[in-house]
Amino acid sequence: MYKVQSFQISDTIDIKSFKNFFTAKLFYSDSDELYFQVSADQYIYVFKYGVVCFMNQDDVRISDFIKLISPYCKNFFEVKLQEEYLIETSSQEDKIGNNKIQLVNSDPETFRVIMLNVSQSVALDYYSDQATILMEETNQYTFNLERTGRLSISGNKLKRFIGKTLNLMNRITENLYIFDSAASTWDDEKLDKIDTELKKTFDLQSRYRSIHEVLEIIKENLGLFKDIMHHRKSSSLEWIIIILILVEVINLFMSKFL
User: Fold this and answer.
1) Rounded CA separation 112/36 (Å)
2) Which of 31, 36, 129, 203 could in theory staple to 44 by disulfide, Cβ–Cβ 3.0 to 4.6 A?
3) How many helices (H) and strands (E) does the chain have?
4) Which domains does the chain have, with CATH numbers?
5) Burial environment of residue 100 by CB neighbours within 10 A (0 to 12, 13 to 18, 19 or more)
6) Alpha helices, DSSP H only, in 76-184?
7) How far apart are the C-alpha atoms of 101 and 44, rounded to whole Å?
8) Are 87 and 101 in contact (CB under 8 A)?
9) Up-side HSE of residue 234: CA atoms within 13 Å toward CB?
């Protein structure tokens, strides 16, 4: 029985630099991911979107590797999201469950497909948490708007909040490839079936759609906030102009009669 453990350790990982640094056997690599075989039936999978996945590694080795890769991480997390999945080999039939997959035969490419799906799942957990935080903050402003009739956020803070939302949306869009299947599944019917079933098991597409819908709601709210802010500034400018005209009239009146 093998254990797959996937961790979201940062926002992003510098794949290119780490590839030049780490000397273990590289089974597969591209600009977005590195798949290492560190020994027989022991693998490490590193993803650009901040996830590291381990198969058949003890806690000490996992901790040591995370420390090793931390200098190559942007916004390294002290508290890490984690997901685990079990692999049983030499089974009588291939069978995929919520917590375990049973395989008749196994090889490094099959392990890679499993680790890829587990890693995609933990990445979605991270993006979901980030979207939830933004939604809760948005709801605070809408509740205050309902209660007081005023938007309780300054222009600069609104701009930063818009930037935070757009950055999250851009990161998710940039990493849409995480929902693609490994190229090895295209010509291998067995691998394709395992990959498809794992995606259903982890509910990857549905979870992504939920995150996207939340971000779209936030985006609509931000558009409304911008309109209110623009209207507030326009009203203030109108009053300033009125006051300036009034002052000018008073000055003219006083200079004429006094």
Assistant:
1) 10
2) 36
3) 6, 10
4) 2-106 (3.30.310), 120-229 (no CATH)
5) middle
6) 108-148, 155-174
7) 18
8) yes
9) 6
Can you say whether the dihedral through the CA atoms of 193, 197, 202, 205 is positive or negative?
Answer: positive
In the prediction, which pLDDT does 66 show? 96
Residues 6+ apart with CB under 8 A from 90: 103, 104
CB 123 within 8 A of CB 207: no
Largest CA distance in the chain: 107
List Cβ<8 Å contacts ≥24 apart for 178-183: 178/47, 178/49, 178/119, 178/120, 178/123, 179/120, 179/204, 179/205, 179/208, 181/113, 182/109, 182/112, 182/113, 182/116
Return the amino acid letter for 157. K
User: Which pLDDT score, from 0 to 100, does residue 152 have?
Assistant: 65
Q: Identify whether the C-beta of residue 141 lies closer than 8 Å to the C-beta of residue 31.
A: no
Burial code of 121-134, b = ≥16 C-beta within 10 A, e = fewer?
bbbbbbbbebbeeb
Does pTM top 0.85 for this prediction?
no
Residues 231 and 151 sit within 8 Å (Cβ to Cβ): no
* CA dist., res. 214 & res. 99, Å (int): 28
